[in-house]
Write a structure and sequence with these properties.
Length: about 170
C-alpha cells in the first residue's frame, strides 16, 4: 500500500505524429489501512505506409489503457487488493502489398481495401492474503475479457522467378 500521495506524468512525441502520454496517482486514504493507485495513458501514431489509391495512412495505431488498484488492510492478519485494468486498441491494416510496387515506391501500397484491427481487453483481480499463527492463506481470483475484431484482405502469393528471385502478386 502507498504511504504518501504520489503523482507521475510523462510524455513522448516523435515522427509520424507519435504521441505517448501516461500518468498515475497513488494515495493513502486512511492511515495504513486503505489506499489506491490509478494509472492510465494513450499512445498513437500516424501510419508509416501510405495507400496511394485512397491517399490515407494504412497502418496507423491508437491505444488507450488504464489500471486501478485498491488496497485494504482489514487488520494485521488480513490484506485485500482489488485490481481492474483495461485497454482499447484501434490499429490500421497490415502494410503488405505488391513487392515490385513497394520496391519502386517504398512505404507505399496501392490497395482497394483497407482493413483494421480493433481490440478491447479488460480484467479484474481480487487478492486476499491471510497470515495466521499456524497457517498462511493466499487467494487470487481473476477474470479476463477479450474482444478482437479484425478485417483485412490478404490475397498475397509468392512466385519464384527464373533467376531465383521472389516477388509477391495479388
Amino acid at each position: 500500500s502507498s504511504e504518501t500521495w504520489t503523482t507521475q506524468t510523462q510524455g513522448a512525441f516523435g515522427n509520424y505524429s507519435f504521441r505517448d502520454l501516461r500518468g498515475s496517482i497513488s494515495s493513502p486514504l486512511f492511515k495504513d489501512r486503505f489506499s489506491f493507485n490509478l494509472a492510465g495513458g494513450y499512445s498513437g501514431r500516424d501510419g508509416y505506409t501510405k495507400n496511394d489509391l485512397t491517399n490515407k495512412d494504412l497502418d496507423k495505431r491508437a491505444a488507450g489503457f488504464g489500471k486501478g488498484q485498491m488496497f485494504f488492510e482489514v487488520n494485521d492478519r488480513l490484506k485485500i487488493r482489488w485490481i481492474i485494468s483495461g485497454e482499447r486498441d484501434r490499429d490500421g491494416d497490415y502494410a503488405l502489398g505488391d513487392l515490385a510496387y513497394i520496391r519502386v515506391n517504398s512505404n507505399h501500397v496501392s490497395r482497394d481495401f483497407e482493413g483494421y484491427t480493433h481490440r478491447s481487453v479488460g480484467s479484474t483481480t481480487l487478492i486476499a492474503d491471510y497470515h495466521g499463527s499456524a497457517i498462511d492463506f493466499s487467494s487470487t481470483t481473476c477474470g479476463v475479457w477479450w474482444k478482437n475484431h479484425s478485417l483485412t484482405d490478404l490475397e498475397y502469393q509468392t512466385a519464384t522467378l527464373a533467376n531465383g528471385g521472389l516477388y509477391a502478386i495479388r
